Amino acid sequence: MLRLERTDCLERLMSNDATRGGEASGSDLMSGSSENDPRTRGLNEAPTRVRYGVAGVLIVMACLLYLDRFAVGIASEYIREDLRMTQTQMSWFISAFFWSYALSQVPAGWLSDRFGRRLMLTIYILAWSTFTGLLGLAASVWLVLHLRLYMGAAQAGAFPVCGGLIRNWFPISQRGTASSIIALGGRAGGVLAPILTAWLIVWSMPQDADPSLKPERDVQRPELLLRFAPNAISESRDRLLRERILTKFTPDERVRLQSMATTVITILAETEKNMATARKQDPSPWTTRWIQIKNAVRVWVPGAADELVPFSVKYSPDHWLSSESVVLADALAEQIKQSNFFESSDITRISLSGRGQALLEKKRTGKSLTDHEVILLNRLVLEAAFPNEIQKFYGPGWRPTLIGYGIVGLLVAFVLAWVARDMPKRHPWCNEAERRFIDDEASLAAKAVEPRDAPFPCRAIVTSLSLWGNSLMQFFTNIGWLFAVTWLPRYLDKVHGVPLAEQALMTAVPTAAGIVGMLFGGRWTDLTARKLGLKWGRRLPIASTRLLSAFGYGICLTLGILCTPDPTTRWLPWAMIAGLSVMVMGVDLGVPATWAYAQDVGGKYTGAILGWANMWGNIGAAVAPLIYNAVLGETPSLTQWNTMFAVCAVAFVLSGLCGLVLDATKPITEEAL
């Protein structure tokens, strides 16, 4: 069967040569009979450019793919607030996508080969877009976890199918360019995701939406009470605002509030000590359960410090909250309706969002604010002062944003089904001249020597140190890289108090730096291969770029240790972004060398090698959020953030060491199968 296929391709090559050599007689050409001759059909017409339309819709698909994948990074805190998720649940929410994405690579590719690339890519886009839209409608943690899992499985087949379409629609001389442009479309989606998502979250909230505080919905009352303990006030950047809030209460109420907060802090400290002792004596899972109860309840009735809550008792806020915390929340709901809720000097160290800054400037210039604007400004001030205790006014905007992404995805799926076909000969818009241009001699010759079904090189992958180095290199790389597209907004918000719009811009910068790295990475690895040979021409760019990424995290770690965050300035978070940009640029600078290595050693098994290593890389991405959560916990300190930077730097060092065992001079042979 394979011999027959090769014979057919060689006959087509001979036919092309004969036609282009002008073997048709002059009388045939003069008589016009060549119009019915399949050897000369299309010679006298310009090739159509349907392939560019196919490439264009694939670029849009790649952009949408990354947009939907990483939009949750900037929206994660709003999703967590809205659904009352713990950081552990949020970690699994992000991790779930990459587990299903990694494990669905091979099945998704097989389905595409079995049922056709155009059909399956359309189904994949429809599926992940539907799950994205449903995510905006989900009302439970259980449901969002499942939807994220299904979304990863649906996206797994996108790029493998895309690669097959490029192979069918472009000659060998243009496949590299087409592949890089489509890959850059995906990176563009990664840059666009935080900026567009942040803008849509704010824009989707109606202008006349009620900004009033609803204590039962918008205020984390036990946590808010703890922020008014005397020690908490004296150590805070918003000390003046808290002191002004306390002046709204009577002297007796102030004493009661602060006394209650102090008592709760003592109870929590004692409980933490008891649990630490219990973990040493019995490290069984029940101690973890006690930690979860403590984080959920946070406050016990005074005098109940030594009592243990039965497992059967479910968390009931109204049952556990003291009357003082309720009084505080209700009072704040009334106080933000007053125009004199705060003075400018009270918030000199509080960073407001763009909308809050605009309203504050209007107030400072003596212009009158409407009642709605007064409440909104005071609400935004409270949110900035108490980011963990006051629910974000613009938070619900994540739902219509994700629903909108889902609707756009459905439209893209239908456009792809309309524009694309599996191959040029099946497309009614593609003329014979374009088909002949795509099936040039080099492309036909390459297809002639390729087996129809190359077996999976299982034995070679398992026994090759070089291939294991490639897989583990990508595993450790993604552990370090994922922070920039998932946890970075949380870091900017909690540590540096950066508002949403600035978070979006800062989050986009490292991804943009990665695009620059990818543009130069291909030329670098080709130049290195010519100068140093194939082994070090692939090995050196991969290993050195991972060490460059570790250096980027080293910058962040050094800044985190030496500098104290100040929400009123931006130089420190921007310096952190510079370090993370070095990290991401290093990752993408080495990507072309990684692809080239797989092509060097893979040959006709290149797809299997890429798929296997990509699976390990995405397992690393699935493990990364769980590692981050284990290091950071629910309410991380600066020390814990710095520890996480160190962990990510170590991951890149390990990745670089794995890259040093790669050997592109040892391709997979049939004997090794």
Tell me what the structure shows.
With 673 residues, the protein is mainly α. The chain folds into three domains: 1-14 and 48-205 and 394-453, Growth Hormone, Chain: A; 215-393, no CATH class; 456-667 and 669-673, MFS general substrate transporter like domains (Growth Hormone, Chain: A). Helices cover 73% and strands 0% of the residues. The protein is built from 32 helices and no strands. The protein has helices spanning 2-20, 26-31, 50-83, 87-103, 105-115, 117-135, 141-155, 158-169, 172-203, 215-218, 221-226, 230-234, 239-247, 251-281, 286-297, 317-320, 323-335, 354-364, 371-385, 398-419, 432-438, 441-448, 458-463, 465-481, 483-486, 488-496, 500-532, 534-562, 571-589, 591-602, 606-632, 638-659. It starts with a helix and ends in a 14-residue tail after the last helix.
Give a quick set of tags describing it:
673 residues; mainly alpha; Growth Hormone, Chain: A; 3 domains; 73% helix; 0% strand; disordered N terminus
Major sheet details: none
Number of helices: 32
Low-pLDDT segments: 1-39, 295-321
CATH homologous superfamily (4th level) name of the largest domain:
MFS general substrate transporter like domains
> What CATH first level of the largest domain would be assigned?
Mainly Alpha
The tally of domains stands at 3
Radius of gyration (CA) equals 30 Å
Oligomer: single chain
Average of per-residue pLDDT values: 80
